[in-house]
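Give me structure tokens for this 251-residue protein.
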Amino acid sequence: MEWKPAQLDISCPPDLVLTNNLDVDPDFADNFARCARQCADGSSFLVQCENRAFQLSVVLRMIWLFRLSKRLEGTQFSVHHKLTFSQSSAVVNFAWYPGASSNNAPAYCFVASVRDCPVKLLDASDGRLRASYPIIDHRERFIAPHSLVFNLTADKLYCCFEDAIEIFNIQQPGEGDRLPTTPSKKSKGLKGKILGFLDRMNVDPISGIISSIAFSSSYDYYAIGSLTPSSQVMDNIALYSESNQGLVSIV
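Here you go.
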């Protein structure tokens, strides 16, 4: 059966269905959740924790039916901790593979950005390493990206860090292609024209740590956001084209 995304009703506030506590770490009493994301089919969710670990929990859904004066039906949810994936250093960020489902073993995986390590593609069923994608700086040190995302066709991985984006073909582990977000003013084509215009307007291109990235759901554009505004009058958001890896606009 083909998976389809859920249709969300945004006309009213969401209801609280349940809450869940982290699995206790006896060696880290003050552990807490930094981020939690559900996989595509909602069967499980992954929590990024302060104690350098991921905690995987599964969601159980029970549909109940009964009849009193009329037929009623509803859904009850329960959650239980399944696995903990400890990492060698602090976790910076992570992202599920698009369409990840516990019922589809090849797609049940996620990428993790861990400090002083290559980007890891981890199997969500047991935490084993499937592949690694190194980002290396000029001093031969690993860079942990601050934000990462798969493209719409799920064959490329975009990893963002300071002043650049590293683009990987996920089927070919190893080094990727680097796209500077502060390219030289000598750049040619559309990118060069935009940079020339920005220079005449005394506006700098996007610089600093690229803290967020998101793809358009209907075209080949993607947007990035930086922690450093490009000027006092402009925001720190830029629009890129995936087809030619060129800067389209700065917002």
